[in-house]
Amino acid sequence: MTAKKSRNKRPALLSHTRPPTVRKHHAALSAKATRNLIRSHHTLMKLRAQALKSDDNALVNKLDSEIEANGGLESYQLASKIGQSQERGGDSSKVLIDWINPRLTELRNTPFKLRVLEVGALSTRNACSQNEHLNVTRIDLNSQGPGILKQDFMERPLPSDDENRFHLISLSLVLNYVPDPLSRGEMLKRCVTFLTKSPPPSSSISIVPSLFLVLPAPCVANSRYLTQQRLQDILCSIGFSLAKNKQTSKLLYQLWEYTGNRESKQFKKEMLNPGVTRNNFAIIVKK
């Protein structure tokens, strides 16, 4: 009898869950084709993550071939970039700028800029990047060009001083790409270590460290294992307080302010919203 494999594996780095980048598709994509490509890529990546967890190398290789046939990571990023383009009204950072505009108003006539870490950045020309009051650091697993650092957020060195921390972290359509629930919880917890805890140099400026979170609406509205309340409970336990919330038919936008009021809680994957048509999106948090 073979020994049972350990179930308490360390959450995989995000970079270890993506297959190699394969080929570029630059042809124009319709809105429907864009959605289908993104949906198909997510499905294949979830299956691949499960195969990796089971050490089923044959299945991993098979799924890699399917992902390559589907266009690979670059096609997924291209579809995401098109979906978030201004032409289709999909730049989520416009919502962020609207929400933090009162804070930005305080920065007028001052040299101070908010430091922003944009995880999973696809463009250097979104609303966030074009704002003169923001100093944006952009990272992604597969950089789309100059101005975006090729880096896995889960491998980014922890900041050694406050100058390397940020006033704002953007996770726009990033958490849903992480293939397993435990790694999603680890990503949310890791955000705290990258947020500055020091006040701005001027006492007239009131800045609260924040997390901008964007998820596909079905991840919360149609999941068996995650609801609005469970998501709020998770982020509050990490030390956040919900400041802004907006949901459309496609996306959930939230702005979370870091209060530091942390509670050491554990959140398991448990049935919250049964239904045969619901999805399995979940977030697990360990103490």
From TrEMBL:
Superkingdom of source: Eukaryota
Highest classification ranks of the organism: Eukaryota, Fungi, Dikarya, Ascomycota, Pezizomycotina
Keywords: Methyltransferase, Nucleus, S-adenosyl-L-methionine, Transferase
EC number, as in UniProt: 2.1.1.-
Chief location category: nucleus
UniProt name for this protein: 25S rRNA adenine-N(1) methyltransferase
Subcellular location: Nucleus, Nucleolus
Class of this enzyme: transferase
Nucleus in keyword set: yes
Family: Belongs to the BMT2 family.
A GO molecular-function descriptor: methyltransferase activity
Organism: Aspergillus cavernicola
HAMAP family: BMT2
Biological-process GO terms, alphabetical: methylation
Residues the entry annotates as binding S-adenosyl-L-methionine: 120, 140
Biased composition (Basic residues): 1-10
Function: S-adenosyl-L-methionine-dependent methyltransferase that specifically methylates the N(1) position of an adenine present in helix 65 in 25S rRNA.
